[in-house]
Specification:
This protein is of the alpha/beta class and about 475 residues long. It has a domain of about 250 residues: Type I PLP-dependent aspartate aminotransferase-like (Major domain) (Aspartate Aminotransferase, domain 2, 3-Layer(aba) Sandwich). It is about 45% helix and about 10% strand. It has 15 helices and eleven strands. It has a seven-stranded mixed β-sheet with strand order 1-7-6-5-4-2-3, sandwiched between helices. A four-stranded antiparallel β-sheet has the order 8-9-11-10. Helix 4 packs antiparallel against helix 13 and helix 6 crosses helix 12. The radius of gyration is 24 Å and the shape is globular.
Length: about 475
């Protein structure tokens, strides 16, 4: 492709992108294709001769787009936000054009120093301690894994990296039964073992019970286990429950246990001063993550990972083959030593673009709106005698179900599952579900970039209509 051809197609593609963003609400939110349908439309062998870019764009529209679930639709209320925004998209275009490999300071000095500054900006915006340093990881799963591995090395005096897991002793990790599955995956990957992940029961509001955590730690020490790490959650995936950070932190401090905090989605709410109660006890935290790529209008992937003892993180992950030695080592941040992968994208650029385009006040305004939408949705649900709220509404997630009289729990679970599938298959809106105390629960997230209360009202009417027709 020549520069002139690139320019021509780039202009056409930007028009396609703008049209998509303008019209995303008109697409069925959830793709209706069947398994294998897209696969079978793609030729079984690559082309022998070059093809014009127009052919690619034609197949994008005809083959790919029917198989896309539209996460950027304001009618998307499932799972969690995976927000994008025009400033983020434009910055991603620049990142792709530059094609920078940002593993060391020397391989892209601007990328390293902008990343360092963006971590400082986020730390200030969210009220986190000034003692935290940080790095941008690809995902919360990677950041949690990095935290647990670092905790493993610190509690074993960095013996596992040198001698293998056999030198570690019987390590234990603790989290609530509501914690994200990335914790389970991390303890498997890092060699601690899934049988050494202790799930602590939760209180009525689905937050970790500190008394039971203390009891579990004491019992494990008596049995010869070595408590290694506690993972507290601010905004659990199912219900957005908030673990009591101060009480947990005091236990960790007293027992010399690493405290990691997963605030993947809810962490964005910390830009609102009225929600900083969620990090009361922040002085006890050793590491914390949240995802601007969820609720801060920044394209995936972009996880902010904060850590109190950056030296321990670096000591855990650094490795220095000859080809990576530089004259600047030790005087700058080489972020390849701050996590698992060597290769790193220029993620800070899109975050810079988003924060500057919205400003702190603009970001706060949108987050407050989303939280307000959830609160108003909760009130609408409470007015209907045949619906019930199943979990506290903390930020932007509402957990509820349809519960007409005369049905037992098994029937209600089956009915709500049918409601969920029927609504999603219609393509009009998209919900996801969770299980709350054994009850099949409809789960609605009001956090999409361009969602309005009108979209929430429309969704609620669709839910009521489908539920009562099936019920």
């Amino acid at each position: 492709m020549t520069p002139d051809e690139f320019r021509k197609h780039a202009h056409s593609l930007v028009e396609w992108m703008a049209m998509y963003l303008e019209n995303v609400e008109n697409y069925p939110v959830k793709s209706g294709v069947k398994p294998g349908e897209i696969f079978n439309k793609i030729p079984s062998s690559p082309p022998e001769e070059p093809e014009p870019f127009e052919n690619f764009m034609r197949d994008l529209d005809e083959i790919i787009m029917p198989g896309i679930t539209h996460w950027q639709s304001p009618d998307f209320f499932a799972y969690f936000p995976a927000n994008s925004s025009p400033p983020s998209v434009l910055a991603e275009m620049i990142t792709a054009t530059l094609g920078s490999q940002c593993m060391n300071w020397e391989t892209s000095p601007a990328a390293t120093e902008l990343e360092e500054k963006m971590i400082i900006w986020l730390r200030e915006m969210t009220g986190l301690p000034s003692t935290f340093e940080g790095v941008i990881q690809d995902s919360a799963s990677s950041a949690t894994l990095a935290a647990i591995i670092t905790a493993r090395e610190k509690v074993t005096s960095f013996a596992v990296n040198d001698e293998g897991s056999g030198s570690a002793g019987r390590l234990r990790v603790y989290c609530s039964g509501q914690a994200h599955s990335s914790v389970d995956k991390a303890v498997k990957i890092c060699g601690i073992g899934i049988k050494n992940l202790v799930k602590i029961d939760v209180r009525d509001d689905f937050s970790m019970d500190p008394a039971l955590l203390q009891k579990a730690i004491e019992e494990d020490r008596e049995k010869g286990f070595i408590p290694c790490c506690v993972v507290a959650t601010i905004g659990t995936t199912g219900t957005t429950a908030v673990d009591p950070l101060r009480a947990i932190g005091e236990i960790c401090s007293k027992n010399d246990i690493w405290l990691h905090v997963d605030a993947a989605m809810a962490g964005t709410a910390l830009i609102l001063p009225e929600f900083r109660w969620m990090i009361d006890g922040k002085e006890y935290v050793d590491s914390l993550l949240f995802n601007p790529h969820k609720w801060m209008f920044t394209n995936f992937d972009c996880t902010a990972f904060f850590i109190k003892d950056a030296d321990a993180l670096i000591k855990t992950f650094e490795i220095l083959p000859e080809y990576l030695k530089t004259r600047t080592r030790g005087t700058v941040n080489d972020y390849r030593d701050w996590g698992i992968p060597l290769g790193r994208r220029f993620r800070a650029l899109k975050l810079w673009s988003v924060i500057r385009s919205y400003g702190t006040e603009g970001l706060q305004k949108k987050i407050r709106e989303h939280i307000g939408f959830a609160a108003r949705l909760k009130e609408m649900i409470l007015k209907e005698p045949d619906f019930e709220i199943l979990a506290p509404v903390v930020i932007n997630v509402v957990c509820f179900r349809y519960c007409p009289e005369g049905r037992d729990e098994k029937e209600l679970n089956s009915l709500n599952e049918k409601i969920n599938h029927q609504i999603n298959d219609s393509g009009r809106i998209y919900l996801s579900h969770t299980m709350v105390n054994g009850k099949y629960t409809l789960r609605m997230v009001t956090g999409q970039t361009n969602v309005t209360f009108g979209h929430v009202e429309k969704a609620w009417e669709i839910i009521k209509e489908n539920a009562r027709r099936l019920g």
